Amino acid sequence: MLSSTSTFVGFPKEGLEFLDKIIINNSKEWLDANRSEYERFIVEPNKAYVEEMGEHLQILVPTIKAIPNTNKSLFRIYRDARFHLSDPIKTRIGIIFWQGSGHRMQSSSFYMHYDSVEVFVAAGVRNFKPTLLATYREYIQNLERRTQLHEILERMKDKGFFIPEPKYKRMPRECNKEDKYSYLYLMGAIFTYTTFKPLKTFHSEKIIDKNFKIYEEMFELQQWVFELTLHCDTEADVYR
């Protein structure tokens, strides 16, 4: 984990205002002209948050990856220009902490993104690429693992968290559609999440404790997904 001279004191309101400005000024030229504001109100507090939250998450996962760099714990502000010619700049900020040696997006993680309307906090993997999807479907053919996952997901819902809806409609050929937990074969991701508005706590250091408590509550599922990833070589997939 890299060290920084910045101390996290919350996400500034100016950062959310800056994200709203992008909506009506979505161009590389505008961002370049406002680079100092972007660095001050977005980049610097995000880096400080990664370092502070990373230290907290080491309590749960001593080997957690918390790296305050772009394409590590911080996501690029630019979208893929091939598909976003008219809106190349993202209007929300994503931050990820991941466990394991695989690609961060196919590793079990603690995640957050935010904009001026909503904060989204999650744990698990939010999208299975083909290699991990195949591994997942094989992994849950074991009844004990399948039952355990179902029970963990039910506990997440009991805590007030959400889980994604099944992505696929057709049951894989090798899976039993009559199985009690057959819906699990149709999932395209395994994660749990919650959302809240970026109010007073978000703008103070208290957001660290708030999000850490959420991650603690989600930890059981995050660890189940981590065990899954240990059976998968995600380097076989290509990522952007």
List key phrases describing it.
alpha+beta; 12% strand; 4-stranded antiparallel β-sheet; globular; 240 residues
Provide structural commentary.
- The chain has helices at 13-24, 28-33, 35-57, 130-139, 143-158, 206-229, and strands at 93-99, 108-114, 119-125, 190-196.
- It is an alpha+beta fold.
- The protein has a domain at 13-132 and 190-231.
- The chain has a 4-stranded antiparallel beta sheet.
- Helix 1 (13-24) packs across helix 3 (35-57).
Strand fraction equals 5-15%
Provide the low-confidence segments as ranges: none
End-to-end gap: 23 Å
> Number of helical runs?
6
What is the approximate shape? globular
Total beta strands: 4
Whole-number mean pLDDT: 92
| Cross-sheet strand order for the largest sheet | 1-2-3-4
The helix/strand order is HHHEEEHHEH
The secondary structure category is: alpha+beta
SSE map:
Elements (H helix, E strand, L loop, with lengths): L12 H12 L3 H6 L1 H23 L35 E7 L8 E7 L4 E7 L4 H10 L3 H16 L31 E7 L9 H24 L11
Antiparallel strand pairs: 1-2, 2-3, 3-4
Task: Offer a quick outline of the entry.
Helices cover 38% and strands 12% of the residues. It has helices at residues 13-24, 28-33, 35-57, 130-139, 143-158, 206-229, and strands at residues 93-99, 108-114, 119-125, 190-196.
